[in-house]
Design goal:
alpha/beta, 22 helices, cellulose synthase (UDP-forming) activity, three-stranded antiparallel sheet, cell wall biogenesis/degradation, Cellulose synthase-like protein E6, 13 strands, 615 residues
Length: 615
């Protein structure tokens, strides 16, 4: 069933820039879920009816604990069904967008955040920046901002090198339709021969080798300087930006720095083919020990103010430094949602899934989040209340800066406010922007409270998305067939555990704060969306009943305490079940019998002839 997200006549529906489709077999899944509800009720009835009456009965407290664990599991399962029973998918029409608005496309500011050149190598950071600069979008309407929260001159030097290399990389990407647009990812996945075979009409070989050589030379220069930890005087003298650093500057104590590396307003800022280059800006906000810096939220808020001063594009894409662009048309697809004449004006942000290019075959740390990306997040997005995940998200600047969505809001995106300010020089813009990145600028303001990202929570992105929705805005989740962004997942157990611990603790704090969706979102977002939020906010405490189930039932089994109903199996059924278990064990251990698919086991089980006899 297809619902066109644009009301009006049939002609208007045909011109919609995106459509929404319900997931297939959604009705069948709801019917299946209803049978689970019946099963849950029967479990509760059994637990209550067989509860040991006397306090002296053996296993009474274990039985009560198991009942409470069942109640917790049941309630959490209901929360998950609020999303899984409402899965919808969005489909933009970028060709319609290009046909209708090609000459009037709005500006887009891309905000990239990094914090530590040791944890986040500068070569990785500039690959993300270069990929963002290479979108299939008018370069004069693109601006890329890098927030360096570590205030490292090494990162500044890497961005300086990337700005020079972009004059070769961007025309190469557009000429040969290069994807992914990250040089490191592209050269590791493709060769000159493979590209020539893909399109016999294009001889990519000579240019491929030339651009790769330039990239390798740039990478080697950056890596060698990062290894020494010092910028040579010869390089310092080549750019005025290095004068912003002094010997007393540290990661936690330095002045604000804003440097425009490429002035996108300048028509002379062109690549080797004469094409315009996008604006590139480096920012390191001021940090002082006596001032709270609010981590990533503080960095993004400073970047919001600086970008508003320099380019003030109506739409924003925020990226982590390890999330590079994989689809050249991702910006155009996202704008289809914002610029739709029907519902576009109500949309605050469009969240993409976080995909990774270093997932192992077995995904031993479960970092791919396949179920969340394919079912849960699209389900919450079905209530037009998609979660903001902190990266790979397109925003409407007004909604992120505190504006309330009212019925008379028209959603202006092509006004003169979004144009790059051409009446000020580079030095004037840099000096004016430094003030906006100072520590004291947010004092006695609404920044971090009602404007920008919300402070006071380790997962500020979730809270920020909720507050935006409670101001009347809608948000969508978009999971395209071609992955729009690819990043780096935790590669070791300790980093994976630290990340999961920080997320689960932060989201649990939200549940007991004033931002609890059932309280803060009451009457502002749909009940299904509130339950969908709590599915993740209660991610940490649901581990307690799981832990109880892991520990207590085995101990009771050893002591002969019954906690589950007795099941009587007929001899043939028991024989089949026993033989299948033995077969599975042999497949996993000795590999004497190979079963490729689950259906093979089912076929064995359904055989009417005779049970298997395995010795």
């Amino acid at each position: 069933m297809v619902h066109m997200d644009k009301g009006g006549t049939e002609e208007d529906e045909a011109l919609a820039l995106f459509e929404t489709k319900e997931a297939r077999f959604r009705g069948a899944y709801r019917l299946f879920a209803s049978t689970i509800v019946v099963g849950i009720c029967l479990i509760w009835v059994y637990r209550l009816s067989h509860l040991p009456r006397s306090a002296h009965d053996q296993g009474r407290w274990a039985w009560i604990g198991l009942f409470l664990a069942d109640v917790c599991f049941s309630l959490y399962w209901i929360f998950t069904q609020s999303a899984r029973c409402n899965v919808v998918y969005r489909y933009p029409f970028k060709d319609r967008l290009s046909h209708r608005y090609e000459e009037k496309l709005p500006g887009v500011d891309i905000l990239v955040c990094t914090a530590d050149p040791k944890m986040e190598p500068p070569t990785m950071v500039i690959n993300t920046v270069l990929s963002a600069m290479s979108y299939n979008y008018p370069p004069e309407k693109l601006s890329v901002y890098l927030s360096d929260d570590g205030g490292s001159e090494l990162t500044f030097y890497a961005l300086l090198e990337a700005s020079a290399f972009s004059k070769h990389w961007i025309p190469f990407c557009k000429k040969f339709r290069v994807e992914p647009m990250s040089p490191a990812a592209y050269f590791s996945k493709h060769s000159a021969a493979s590209n020539s075979q893909h399109d016999l009409s294009i001889n990519i070989g000579p240019e491929w080798l030339a651009v790769k050589k330039l990239y390798e030379e740039m990478k080697n220069r950056i890596d060698s300087i990062v290894e020494t930890g010092m910028i040579p005087k010869k390089i310092r003298d080549q750019h005025k930006g290095f004068s912003e650093w002094n010997s007393n500057a540290t990661k936690q104590d330095h002045q604000s720095i804003v440097q425009i590396m490429i002035d996108g307003r300048d028509k002379n800022a062109v690549d080797i083919d004469g094409g315009r280059l996008p604006m590139v800006v480096y920012m390191a906000r001021e940090k002082r020990p006596q001032w709270p810096h609010n981590f990533k939220a503080g960095a993004l808020n400073a970047l919001l103010r600086v970008s508003a001063k320099i380019s003030n594009a109506p739409f924003i894409l925020n990226l982590d430094c390890d999330m590079y662009a994989n689809d050249a048309d991702a910006v155009r697809e996202a704008l289809c949602f914002f610029m739709d004449e029907g519902k576009g004006k109500e949309i605050a942000f469009v969240q993409h899934p976080q995909n990774y290019d270093n997932i192992t075959k077995n995904d031993i740390y479960s970092t791919s989040s396949s179920v969340a990306n394919k079912f849960e997040l699209p389900g919450i997005g079905g209530y037009e209340a998609a979660l903001y995940c902190g990266t790979v998200c397109f925003h409407r600047r007004e909604s992120l800066c505190g504006k309330v969505c009212s019925k008379d809001y028209r959603g202006e995106w092509n006004s003169t406010e979004g144009e790059k300010k051409s009446d000020k020089t580079v030095n004037e813009l840099e000096e004016a922007s430094k003030v906006l990145a100072n520590c004291s600028h947010e004092k006695d303001t609404q920044w971090g409270k009602k404007m920008g990202l919300i402070y006071g929570c380790p997962v500020e992105d979730i809270v920020t998305g909720l507050t935006i929705q409670c101001r009347g805005w809608k948000s969508l989740y978009y999971n395209p067939d071609k992955k729009a962004f690819l990043g780096v997942a935790p590669a070791t157990l300790d980093t994976a555990l630290i990340q999961q611990k920080r997320w689960s603790e932060g989201m649990f704090q939200i549940f007991f704060s004033k931002y609890c969706p059932f309280i803060y979102g009451r009457g502002k977002i749909k009940l299904g969306a509130q339950m969908g939020y709590c599915m993740y906010l209660l991610w940490a405490p649901i581990s307690l009943p799981a832990l109880y189930y892991v520990i207590v039932p085995p101990l009771c089994l050893l002591r002969g305490i019954p906690l589950f109903p007795q099941v009587y199996l007929s001899l043939p059924f028991y024989s089949y079940a026993r033989d299948i278990c033995i077969l599975c064990l042999k497949c996993m251990s000795k590999k004497q019998v190979r079963v490729n698919r689950f259906r093979d086991i089912c076929a064995i089980y359904a055989s009417p002839l005779m049970p298997l006899r395995l010795t």
